[in-house]
Amino acid sequence: MKSILIAFLLLLSINLFSQEIDKDKIDHYITYIENNNGGIGSLSIYRNGKEVYTRNFGQEKLINTDYNKDTKYQIASVTKMVTAILILKLVEKGELKLDDKLSDFYPEIPNSKKIIIKNLLEHTSGLGNFAVRNGAIWVTEKVSEKEIFEEIRKQGVSFEPNEKVAYSNSAYILLRMIIEKKYKKEYHKVVIQEIVKPLNLKNFASIKSNPTNTFKSYKFAENWNAIKDIEYSNVIGVGDIASTTEDLNIVINSLFQYKILKKETLESMKPTIGKEDWGRGLALFAYGDNLFFGHSGDVLGSHSRLIYNPKDNISLSYSTNGERVPTNIFVENLVSIIYNKEFKLPEIK
């Protein structure tokens, strides 16, 4: 009798794990967003390393815009996950240590003798946000690397390393510069060498690779109208990569299948559950009992979310270049559908 009960419970757990994702329900949700001008974007869902759902939506409402299945989105700060991977590849090769000091590379930066690589990765350095100067975003027009470095230096630090966590764009600019020093190559060439070619990506490029077929950013006012976004050459390694959602899913699935980094290195990227929201290139996204790891990205008009649940081997890649339903709400509803939970259709104003 006991063996029969164990077999029944095992069968039940297998059935729960293999439960089908309700694609019709996802379609209904996306169609609601599309019909109400709630957004323009692309969605890709992977399970067990394979794409089980994909859809582009809203693009046909753009005026005088050519696009196809290979048209890329600006993924903004999801780029930071890639930069963290490249830093950790240097650590694996023995060419860099997490406790190496920033002063070994850029002694001009305040507190650089105390700040280590690990601090830069996990936003505990005390460095700020170079993209905001005098309370305003100033990187919408091309500026020099020297100007950006000087702004980082002038802003200095607001706290001592490890004192607290504060999201830092400046830290990731410096990480990108360290990558270029170590590889003796520009960032976009390192991305090609270490990410694009090994994973056979077709639509994934840093800005200096001059990606074509990339969506502009839009804002809705009776119609979708193109807007001026940041100048992506100002945020290399921080927020400049353009990609399709499919290629993004290939990247995060390859990462969690240890095709890019070793298992122990990946574990070091992840935040400690219950203690950290930010790890070292990966953040924690909790939706009820379902825990995902990944990264989000937001600029003035484009937004992305790339997340992976290692327990169920499910990943979700979402990019939008025209948002009326906030990304957090959009993705939370999708996760609810995937796990057959109740949710409300968002109100679109």
UniProtKB/TrEMBL annotation:
Signal peptide, first to last residue: 1-18
Gene3D superfamilies: DD-peptidase/beta-lactamase superfamily
Keywords for the protein's UniProt record, in alphabetical order: Hydrolase, Signal
Protein name: Class A beta-lactamase-related serine hydrolase
A Pfam family the protein falls into: Beta-lactamase
Domain Beta-lactamase-related: 42-324
PANTHER family associated with the record: BETA-LACTAMASE-RELATED DOMAIN-CONTAINING PROTEIN, D-ALANYL-D-ALANINE-CARBOXYPEPTIDASE/ENDOPEPTIDASE AMPH
InterPro entries in UniProt: AmpC-like, Beta-lactam-related, Beta-lactam/transpept-like
GO molecular function list: hydrolase activity
